[in-house]
């Protein structure tokens, strides 16, 4: 891999790590969402530091080119992100329903006390 590409990947990976860390410290995202960004950032840094690693992994899994490995890995990562977000949405839906029920009961108590 060319030196300029290695330096570019290293720079992009480190910048992503710094940006996510700053956003996390400001409290704009939670740790579980930060992990979604930390993992690809670390993979980019690893790719820059060990460029032959992905060639070995591609051969091990039977991919003919590294780009096919990357596309397959991205496909799997996107599915995992979709599953994680679906679980979060389901949990939020349950919490919203509980809050609606509690607010309804409180409104009923207030109305009963006013009468």
Automatic annotation (TrEMBL):
Domain of life: Bacteria
Key words of the record: Membrane, Transmembrane, Transmembrane helix
Classification via InterPro entries: DUF2304
Transmembrane feature ranges: 6-24, 36-54, 66-90
Pfam families referenced in this protein's UniProt entry, alphabetically: DUF2304 (PF10066)
Protein name: DUF2304 domain-containing protein
Naturally occurring in which organism (per UniProt): Thomasclavelia ramosa
Classification lineage: Bacteria, Bacillati, Bacillota, Erysipelotrichia, Erysipelotrichales
């Amino acid at each position: 891999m060319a030196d300029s590409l290695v330096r570019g990947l290293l720079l992009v990976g480190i910048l992503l790590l710094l940006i996510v860390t700053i956003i996390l410290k400001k409290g704009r995202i939670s740790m579980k969402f930060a992990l979604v960004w930390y993992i690809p950032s670390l993979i980019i840094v690893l790719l820059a530091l060990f460029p032959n690693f992905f060639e070995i992994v591609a051969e091990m899994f039977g991919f003919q080119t590294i780009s096919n490995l990357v596309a397959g890995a991205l496909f799997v990562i996107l599915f995992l992100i979709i599953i994680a977000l679906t679980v979060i949405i389901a949990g939020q839906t349950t919490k919203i329903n509980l809050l609606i029920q509690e607010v309804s009961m409180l409104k009923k108590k207030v109305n009963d006390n006013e009468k």
